[in-house]
């Protein structure tokens, strides 16, 4: 059986604690939708999202963010917008709102002035994010194929533990499973999240300089069959439900 996994630095969030250390937490272990766009002016597009958070709330989203590709992108302005939902049912219901709600349709029409829409993807959360929610953060998205999904997921979990045990408590590795994501979807998505691009770089520098990282990563490399896509993003949160 062919399986694909995405090693992305985006975010799968389980019991998410906010970076300003509020007591609230939010469970984002259900599902995620991803909108792929080419933005004419990424900053202006993000402003539109931040100024219309009522539309995200109306769709049932728990958390939303926007990511600008800084490496691995095919064209300038390549972006992803992610939305987390409590379940796959809630995520699919969000599509229903987009199709039937007049205000939502107007909002989407206005957004099209700022972007070229490339498509939507839906994913189930497999291994959720654990850590603080950063207002600004960096991600790496690596889509891969594997013939041993469980072995790969376990290897990712062990790699995350190795990072946490060696001073990288502020990073996360997360896994998603795409559902309804096009003609040749990946079967899984893994997310590497760091509080900045520099910190993300330090994380991967360890793979080339530290024996503990190389040892843990060897199991990851051994359990995947091919890399499909590899991109790095600079991201920011644009909406949260509390």
User: Structurally, how many domains make up the residues?
Assistant: 1
The total count of strands amounts to 12
Strand content: 35-45%
CATH topology: Alpha-Beta Plaits
Question: How would you explain this protein's 3D organization?
Answer:
Helix 5 runs antiparallel to helix 7. A hairpin with a 6-residue loop joins strand 2 (13-18) and strand 3. This protein is 33% helix and 41% strand. It has a single domain (3-240), classed as Alpha-Beta Plaits, CATH 3.30.70.100. It is α+β, with helices and mostly antiparallel strands and 242 residues long. The strands form two sheets. Strands 1, 4, 5, 6, 7, 9, 10, 11 and 12 form a nine-stranded mixed beta sheet that branches. A three-stranded mixed beta sheet has the order 3-2-8, with no helix packed on it. The longest helix is centred in the middle third of the chain and has 17 residues, at 149-165.
Name the descriptors:
single chain, globular, 9-stranded mixed β-sheet, alpha+beta, 242 residues, 7 helices, 3-stranded mixed β-sheet, Alpha-Beta Plaits, disordered N terminus
Task: Put the structure in a nutshell.
The chain is 33% helix and 41% strand. The protein is α+β, with helices and mostly antiparallel strands and 242 residues long.
Q: Which secondary structure elements does this structure contain, and how are they paired or packed?
A:
Elements: E1 3-8, E2 13-18, E3 25-27, E4 31-39, H1 42-50, H2 53-58, E5 63-71, E6 78-85, H3 88-100, H4 102-111, E7 115-127, E8 129-133, E9 136-146, H5 149-165, E10 172-179, E11 189-194, H6 197-209, H7 211-222, E12 226-240
Parallel strand pairs: 1-11, 2-8
Antiparallel strand pairs: 1-9, 2-3, 4-6, 4-7, 5-6, 5-12, 7-10, 9-11, 9-12, 10-11
């Amino acid at each position: 059986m062919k399986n694909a996994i995405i090693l992305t630095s985006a975010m799968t969030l389980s019991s998410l604690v906010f970076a300003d250390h509020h007591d609230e937490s939010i469970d984002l272990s259900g599902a995620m939708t991803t909108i792929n766009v080419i933005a004419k002016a990424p900053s202006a597009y993000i402003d539109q999202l931040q100024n219309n958070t009522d539309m995200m709330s109306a769709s049932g989203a728990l958390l939303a963010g926007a990511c600008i590709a800084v490496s691995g992108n095919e064209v300038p302005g390549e972006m992803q917008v992610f939305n987390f939902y409590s379940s796959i049912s809630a995520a699919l219901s969000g599509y229903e709102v987009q199709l039937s709600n007049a205000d939502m349709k107007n909002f989407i029409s206005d957004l099209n002035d700022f972007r070229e829409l490339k498509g939507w993807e839906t994913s189930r959360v497999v291994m959720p994010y654990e850590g603080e929610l950063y207002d600004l953060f960096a991600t790496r998205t690596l889509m891969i194929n594997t013939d041993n999904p469980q072995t790969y997921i376990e290897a990712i979990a062990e790699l995350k533990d190795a990072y946490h045990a060696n001073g990288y408590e502020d990073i996360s590795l997360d896994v998603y499973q795409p559902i309804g994501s096009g003609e040749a979807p990946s079967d899984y998505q893994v997310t590497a999240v760091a509080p900045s691009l520099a910190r993300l770089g330090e994380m991967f520098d360890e793979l080339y300089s530290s024996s503990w990282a190389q040892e843990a990563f060897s199991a990851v490399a051994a359990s995947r069959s091919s890399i499909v896509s590899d991109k790095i993003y600079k991201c920011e949160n644009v909406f949260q439900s509390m």
